[in-house]
Specification:
about 375 residues, Neuraminidase, single chain, four-stranded antiparallel sheet, about 10% helix, five-stranded mixed sheet, mainly beta, disordered N terminus
Length: about 375
């Protein structure tokens, strides 16, 4: 199925909405969702991060020239640990909060205590455990915070994402169009026994074009966007109900309703031949109520362009990308409180430095970081003022 998605000519757009969802959507009182219109955006070149944005840089150092980082797909942070998932080299790296490598877990095989491919992982901070799901062997494997093996067991579910909550583990299911497991989201107990199914799949193909993690959890508030939809929901954990709080209007060229297509082939063929935009991806909800996400624009002949949208009260502003000291910053992986956290792989930094000419404060800043002890990546924490 991946061959289909390699054919997609897509433009990945980042969108930042300063929208007070916690205040404007008192979830038990409000009867309707807010509507955000993309047409209201005035786009500019870039949003430059400044020192006033409460920026913190952490170099994740391995101490080993041979220990490389391929494609960073997931990151989790606790008070004293940083966990980095690399899906290209099939490894999980564990650092302390100063960025020093503690351990690296690598794909080995199908035997006891081994895994072949990390589909996703989660962190249980209370019990100081890492839990990963191997989608090749259908094993759930538990490690402590230092990477020591604890126990493992088989599962029948294809877990796309997992997040620790008080009630257990909040997960999404990549097989949600099957007859046996038709739901999209589940809650498992701490032993990964099924507790409750909480969301049926309402959009076709969402398990095939799946968002890595459609849940955003911050300050015990849980928000959700189903892949291939333009809606953001709040999930009430006590009532186990989803309430729509935001709808994004991608007019005049919204993507079609996937439910109107009979097959994934017809669906992809249609959007490849059209100039369309839509669907929310990589949802981030901050403690102050601001919302961050990306959307995709499909085009036959336009080059790929990354953009960011900022909405503050009645004003909507757009940018092509985040930038810090002349470097284009990857879209944030996670949000903690009001902070956004991006990861700059060493390969990206090396390519940027190779194109620098002359000496300047900005150029010297990145060169000095790169010339330090072997660095797997740079963690960039910042706030949008």
């Amino acid at each position: 199925m991946n061959n289909y998605f390699r054919k997609l000519k897509s433009l990945s757009f980042s969108i930042f909405l300063t929208l007070s969802v916690f205040q404007s959507c008192q979830l038990k009182k409000s009867q309707s969702s807010d509507v955000i219109s993309i047409r209201d955006a005035d786009f500019n070149e870039n949003l430059t991060l400044k020192e006033g944005d409460d920026i913190k840089l952490t170099a994740l150092t391995t101490g080993q020239e041979s220990l490389l980082v391929g494609a960073i797909s997931n990151i989790q942070i606790t008070e004293n640990r940083i966990f980095l998932q690399d899906n290209k080299l099939h490894q999980l790296l564990i650092f302390d909060r100063n960025g020093t490598l503690i351990n690296s877990l690598h794909a080995l095989g199908e035997g006891p205590k081994e895994f072949k491919f990390i589909e996703t992982f989660g962190v249980d901070n209370k019990n100081k455990k890492i839990v990963l799901f191997d989608s090749r062997t259908f094993k759930i494997i538990h490690f402590d915070f230092n990477g020591n093996f604890l126990w493992e067991h088989k599962t029948s579910f294809f877990i796309r994402s997992m997040s620790k909550i008080d009630q257990g583990w909040l997960t999404t299911n990549s097989w949600s169009n099957s007859n046996e497991f038709p739901e999209y989201a589940y809650i498992f107990d701490d032993n990964f026994e099924l507790n409750v199914a909480i969301k049926e799949q309402s959009v076709k193909f969402s398990n095939l074009i799946a968002d890595t993690n459609p849940f955003s959890i911050n300050d015990y508030k849980i928000f959700f966007n189903e892949p291939l939809s333009n809606d953001i929901f709040h999930f009430d954990i006590k009532e186990q109900k989803f309430k729509k709080v935001i709808t994004v209007d991608f007019s005049p060229n919204p993507l079609p309703d996937p439910n109107s297509f009979g097959s994934i082939r017809n669906f992809i063929s249609t959007i490849n031949e059209s100039n369309l935009q839509g669907w929310i991806r990589d949802l981030k909800v901050l403690e102050n109520g601001n919302v961050l996400f990306k959307f995709i624009q499909y085009s036959e002949d336009s080059p790929s362009v990354s953009k960011i949208l900022i909405k503050k009260s009645s004003q909507t502003l757009g940018y092509r990308y985040f930038e810090y000291k002349g470097l284009k910053i990857p879209f944030p992986k996670i949000a903690l409180g009001n902070k956004l956290i991006s990861v700059i792989p060493s390969e990206l930094l090396e390519n940027h430095i190779s194109q620098l000419t002359g000496s300047s404060d900005q150029n010297d800043f990145w060169k000095n970081i790169f010339e330090q002890k072997p660095t797997a990546a740079i963690l960039l924490e910042f706030e949008i003022q």
